[in-house]
Amino acid sequence: MISRVKAAVAQLVGGTASSSGAGSCPDSGPRFPYSRPVFLQLSPEESERAADHSGRPILVPALGSRSRLALPWHTGYAEVINAGKSVLNEDQAAREIVQVERKDWKNGTAAETVKDDGSAGKERDGLQFHYWALFDGHAGPDAAVMAAKLLHLHICEQLQDIVDILQASDVPPPISLSNNVGAATGDGAKSPPHQGDWEPPTDSESRFLLEKEISHEYLVIGAIENAFRQMDEQIEREQSSHGILGGCCALAVVYLLGKYYVANAGDSRAILIRGGETIPLSNEFTPESERQRLQYLGYLQPHLLGNEFTHLEFPRRIQHREIGRKMLFRDYSMTGWAYKTIEEDDLKFPLVYGEGKKARVMATIGVTRGLGDHNLKVYCSNIHIKPFLSCVPEVKVYDVAQHEHGVDDVIVLGTDGLWDVVSDREVADAVIRILSSCDADNPNRFTLAAQELVMRSRGILKEHGWRLSNDRLGSGDDISVFVIPLYGHT
Ligand code: MG
Question: Tens digits of per-residue pLDDT, 2-19?
């Protein structure tokens, strides 16, 4: 077992060993061939130059005279390829404006993506949401490419089911099968028919059995959570036919009805910079941060451990000759440590092992939430890792109307290539410095800020590799950054 783990660790690239795959050739080619984000509008020559691991050029959307091609809201974006850990840039990005149309329940309607032409907010029969997302692939770019093309459509489809409710201004009252809104009460009077602008149910509204008052916010959160699950299931369905290997972390932001919904599954991160202060908008999901969830699953379903792993955590590997002695350990219910007498079973490899960026689940993968990885197994074994990985994001909500925002207030999204080498404070200081040095009406200022963040985290190529300004090691990972302006978009 130990040699097997060593071999797996030696193969680790970007957090995972290679997926074992289906062991068969795909029936057809990739559904979405590898490319950089469409909004970068790269020529074939530019795409080729972008893949230069030694020069690592920083890519941004068109600036200056080509700024008519800029992203909606003049969102800032920049990216750079890794320093050679993988042939392709395994990060992907998406920026969309999506129209959620009312569903024709008799015939059905398809989700429609609206390319921005500056007419955001135009009246349509339905809702519109803005969308930004970063995907950080591992063991290949396939899952990240597919999610970048499709996740927003899954979110649209989920929202389509509840668009009638979301367009009512208040939480609707409970409705049951036998007592719909407007039904007679015991005293002969009609029950209050309205709450806010809620109307008596029409054909479409009466489809919903609203037994419990749920705020619109929680309905949107549920829609996003379900969309991630649908995306994950689609990757599983199509992995054989399209040869999809590996998986990806996913960080998505949905701006809908005055609120930002920040959904995170993985180790990318989002922060808010408001009035110079930094406020985290996401948590990372790693073997360390999710240790107790993983251990509990291993405890409940020990067959998932394949008789090779123990759900207990120990500070180091235990030797056979140490059986009978006392060793520190942690179980799923513990945040602290205690001593236990070492038994034969404790010689198995810990389900969660390692610290920081070296922490792994089953000695294989360094993130615990994301999309894909359906065929990921422990190296040279038949032990599946997917049961321990969750595709469900944590969704945090930021209500714009609750705060005043200045022209330099932004949300920054970054893959771990950014956050591994710069702190929240360093990110905020760099963004504020760039934004305050530009005129407030400069449409390029947010892209310049994103470019600065990628430059700072990549560093400069010196004799001893990529180095930051303080001579620390720069990030050798793919780096992708969005800078989303908050001012003027309420
Ligand atoms: Mg990364």
Answer: 344 333 333 333 334 343
What is the 416 CA–ligand 1 centroid distance (Å)? 5
Provide the pLDDT for residue 490: 63
CA of 419 to the centre of ligand 1 (A): 9
Distance 477 CA to ligand 1 centre (A): 6
According to the per-residue pLDDT averaged within each range, which of 32-41, 188-197, 424-433 is highest?
424-433
The DSSP H or E segment spanning 156 is helix 142-160
Going from the Cα of 255 to the center of ligand 1, the distance in angstroms, rounded, reads 25
Q: How far is CA 38 from CA 94, 395, 487, in A?
A: 8, 26, 26
- Percent of the chain scoring above 70 in pLDDT: 80
Token pair for residue 249?
A: 């972390």
- 43 Cα: distance to centroid of ligand 1 (angstroms): 25
Q: What is the pTM of this model?
A: 0.85
Contact status, residue 114 vs residue 1, Cβ threshold 8 Å? no
Ligand 1 centroid to residue 270 C-alpha, Å = 14
Give the alpha-carbon dihedral of 273, 278, 281, 286, to 10 degrees.
Answer: 130
Q: Give distance in angstroms: CA of 108 to centre of ligand 1.
A: 39
For 432-475, how does the pLDDT look when each residue is reduced to its tens digit (9 = 90+)? 999 999 999 899 999 999 999 999 999 999 988 999 988 899 99
Is the distance from CB of 413 to CB of 270 less than 8 angstroms? yes
Going along the chain from its start, the domains and CATH numbers come out as: 2-167+215-285+391-485 (3.60.40.10), 175-209 (no CATH), 292-366 (no CATH)
User: How close is the Cα of 471 to the center of ligand 1, in Å?
Assistant: 21
Select from 267, 255, 263, 265 the least CA-distant residue to 281: 263
Q: Ligand 1 mean position to 446 CA, how many Å? A: 22
Predicted pLDDT at 203? 54
Cα-to-centroid distance, 413 and ligand 1 (Å): 13
Distance 266 CA to ligand 1 centre (A): 10
Handedness of CA 157, 163, 165, 169 (dihedral sign): positive
Cα 91 to ligand 1 centroid, rounded to whole Å: 7
pLDDT in tens, 56-80: 999 999 765 555 567 889 999 999 9
| C-alpha 401 – ligand 1 centre gap (Å) | 33
